[in-house]
Amino acid sequence: MSKSQNAEGGNSFNGNWNDKTCFEWEMRNGIHLDNANFLNMYKETTKYIAELIPFETFTDLGGGVGAYSKAMREFGKTVYYYDANIHHHKYAHQYDVATRYFYSDFTRIQIEGDLVACIEVMEHIEDERLEPFLKRLKCNYFHFSSTPHTNPMDADWGHINIKQEHEWIELFEKCGFIFVQKLDRPTNWSLLFSK
User: Fold this and answer.
1) pLDDT tens track for 123-176
2) Would you tell me the crossing angle of helices 127-136 and 165-174 to the nearest 10 degrees?
3) How far apart are CA 82 and CA 164, in angstroms?
4) Residue 13 neighbours by CB distance under 10 Å
5) pTM
6) Do 153 and 189 touch, CB atoms closer than 8 A?
7) Quick one: CA dihedral 136, 137, 139, 144, positive or negative?
């Protein structure tokens, strides 16, 4: 997540877009909280996870527009939302998606919680940053998803670390996690780990 200042609307994380460009693209493409189908995907994910494992706190790393956080909060969980895109952060606040908000690069700080999730974020971060973060992360469960597919827009999106499922599992196990099972929510390539 090499971060550089951009005069046109925020930071750029290893991609050709800045934070504002990314946010605007999401809004145009239905990645927002007024899209009932998008929000329902996370409500279904929340219900599924809550039936699978016990947890009271939910930490959403790189929470984006806040759909997973909002679904967890409505489900009655204590929610901690982290994002380093100021546009995501302001939008999530507007919809009151979390108990507490952190405008932060989560890889640089200590994170603790019952259930921690990082959905479609780690493909933007180099292993040199991920490994130390994962080793110091304290959680009971980690819900993870990161696209295994390449896309013509990868350079724009800042997808610099696309791995296949077995490669992510190897990295997580190297950092002290235990692979629990494959999940089909919110993506078909989601994984659940314990630590």
Assistant:
1) 999 999 999 999 999 999 999 999 999 888 888 888 989 999 999 999 999 999
2) 50
3) 25
4) 23
5) 0.91
6) no
7) negative
Structure token pair of residue 22: 């990314």
Residues 6+ apart with CB under 8 A from 57: 77, 78, 79, 80, 113, 114, 115
Q: Given this model, what pLDDT does residue 86 score?
A: 96
pLDDT band of residue 12 (cuts 50, 70, 90) is very low
40: how many CB neighbours lie within 10 A of its CB? 12
Q: Which domains does the chain have, with CATH numbers?
A: 3-194 (3.40.50.150)
For residue 61, give the amino acid letter: L
Are 184 and 190 spatial neighbours (Cβ–Cβ below 8 Å)?
yes
